[in-house]
Each structure stands twice: as structure tokens, then as C-alpha cells.
Amino acid sequence: MENMERDTPPIPFEWDDAAGRDQVVVLRGITWQQYVAINNAIGETPRPRMAYLDGELEVMTMSRRHELVKIMLGRLVEAFAEEMDIPLDGYGNTTWQKEAELAGLEPDECYSIGELGEFPDLAIEVVHTSGGINKLEIYRRLSVSEVWFWINGRVYVYRLAGKYKLVANSVALPGIDLDAIAHIIATTRSGGQTAAVRAFRKTLHKPTGST
Fold first, then answer.
1. Which of the listed residues 22, 47, 82, 202 has the most CB atoms within 10 Å of its CB?
2. 15-64, pLDDT tens digit by residue?
């Protein structure tokens, strides 16, 4: 994967079909108390995802394609951790908030590695629509060590070191082949997720001494 410095993730392609487009609305002038009240009122039922930063509230409904990619990414990450004996705990799209930083959001998927601290170690964002608020800035304020963005058919890895830098490989899950994962997601057809995950697991167990 290309190693380069970029302050924000690239802009995604716009999908022509409704199955590929997320619907994003940004409301401005929203206080922290209003954000928390809206979040609590919606509850835990199937709901739009929300992100809050400095008075701006993003409300997003996810497309079918968005959900397929997020679930497949999560399954592959979890399969890798299991096969590599990495102590990974998943927290899905849990709401993470820090009032003192006026920042909060719900990742597509997020994980702790080892024991859970105040916030997860790894967050994953699937981006299918341009616009919205600066998620990396929210993650910086929450001190999430690593954030992955799925954009335009590939995974971009951002590592926090004062600010986020785009890096070539994951530090949170060393050895994971994100190009291979992107290829699996791009080529997996309806009904094929389980077989794809099973095949991915087999690639992680080459005989000793093989190349």
C-alpha cells in the first residue's frame, strides 16, 4: 500500500444507484446537550448513525452496499485475529463521546486489543458518500490509535502520532494484508461471504518454511 502523508481521507466516488449511496445530513448550531438528548431519544433500535464535532451534528443512513462492506470487513478482521491469536474484542458501532472535547461518534466497527481502555484501539469507517464532518478530528480527540477508512475499493490506514498520518500497514493488527482483504471484498458476490472468510483463513496457515 502507498505510504504518504494526507491530512484527510480521499473523496469517494459517487454511486449512481440508491443501493450504493449513503444519505448524509449535517446540522449546525447543535449544542452538546442537544446532541446527547437526540442520541438518547433514538435509542438502540436500528437508527441513523450520528457524529458530533464542535456544534455540528452529522446524521447518516447507510446504504445496502455500505452495510455489506462493513460486515465483510469486520468478519475478515475477526477471522485474522482468531487465527493469529490476537486478543481482539469487538464493540460494533458503540457510541463513543467526550464532552470536554465536544466530540462523539459511532464507528462502523471498532475493536480493543487486549483490555478495553477509555476508547477502542482500532476503528473502521466505510465511506461511500462525500461530505459530512471531519471524522479523523473526532477520533483524534478520542485518542483512538488507529483508524481505517474503506474508500473507493481500498483500505486507508491512519495512525495517531500527535496527528494522524497515512501509513502503509496496520500497527494494531501487524501482518494483516489489507490489499488482499480489499480484493476479497471486491470479488465476493451475494451469498459468498462465508466461503470467502473460510478461504481467507486457509491463506493464514501456510506450512512452515513455505514462501
1. 22
2. 555 545 567 889 999 999 999 998 888 766 567 889 999 999 999 888 88
